[in-house]
Amino acid sequence: MRHGKKFNHLSRTSSHRKAMLSNMACSLIQHKRINTTVAKAKALRKFVEPIITKSKLDNTHNRRLVFSSLKDKYAVAELFREVAPKVADRPGGYTRIIKLGNRLGDAADMAMIELVDFNEVYSLDEKSSKKKSTRRAGKKSKETESATTAEDSKEENKDNE
Predict the structure, then answer these.
(1) What DSSP element (H or E) covers 14?
(2) Backbone angles phi, psi at 102, to 5 degrees
(3) Pairing of strands 33-37, 95-102
(4) What is the distance between the alpha carbons of residues 54 and 59, in angstroms, rounded to a whole number?
(5) What whole-number distance in Å separates Cα of residue 24 and Cα of residue 1?
(6) Which residues contact 148 (CB under 8 A, 6 or more apart)?
(7) To which H or E segment does residue 46 belong?
(8) pLDDT higher than threshold 70 for residue 19
(9) What are the pLDDT digits (tens) for 105-155?
């Protein structure tokens, strides 16, 4: 029975699983998105999100904790230098898993896991920069009303002369 077993063992030994997740996390931090199977992506999400949370506070203790998980000083440097400032105001949910279909060779479910704040397609900045347009004609603002009434009064004065 699997009572109380919280994570997927991925049919690997403990040392192999830790090394694989560490390497995948380093690749994810460096490339911002990677393609893998759905099971590995879900296991990687549980592995990498606490690491990203630790990187929000840049001090020696957190750097050592993150390095003990990743074992790659270049990935740790990039995490604290580039990724942490972008996710500083986000309260969790740093990764997104997008299912891609089945792999050709063995029909394994494939997925792309990516860092949420580094995707230009789904970024909120582009959506907020566009002016919201509505199909209905709403009330005119006070500035436009005063401008149009001033123009109307000028036209009336010309007609009266």
Answers:
(1) helix 14-31
(2) -100, 145
(3) unpaired
(4) 10
(5) 29
(6) 140
(7) helix 38-55
(8) yes
(9) 999 999 999 999 998 887 665 555 555 666 776 666 665 555 555 656 655
Q: Model confidence at 37, in pLDDT bands (50, 70, 90)?
A: very high
CA distances to 2, 53, 137, 143 from 12, rounded to whole Å, are 16, 27, 62, 68
Pairing of strands 109-115, 95-102: antiparallel
Q: For the chain, where are the E strands, in sequence order?
A: 33-37, 95-102, 109-115
Whose tokens are 């309260």? That residue is: 91
Query: Which two three-digit tokens encode residue 32?
Result: 């911002």
Written as six digits, the tokens of 80 are 């604290």
Q: What are the structural domains, with CATH classification, of the chain? A: 14-121 (3.90.1030.10)
Q: Please compute, for residue 56, the number of CA atoms within 13 A of its CA located in the half-sphere on the CB side.
A: 12
* Lateral strand order in the sheet of 95-102: 33-37, 109-115, 95-102
Question: Could you tell me what percentage of the chain is helix, strand and coil, using 3-state DSSP and rounding each to the nearest 5?
Answer: 55, 10, 30
HSE-up (13 A, CA, CB side) for residue 30: 12
* CB within 8 Å of 14: residues ≥ 6 apart: none
What's the rounded Cα separation, in Å, for the pair 150 and 154?
A: 6
HEC per residue, 120-134: CCCCHHHHHHCCCCC
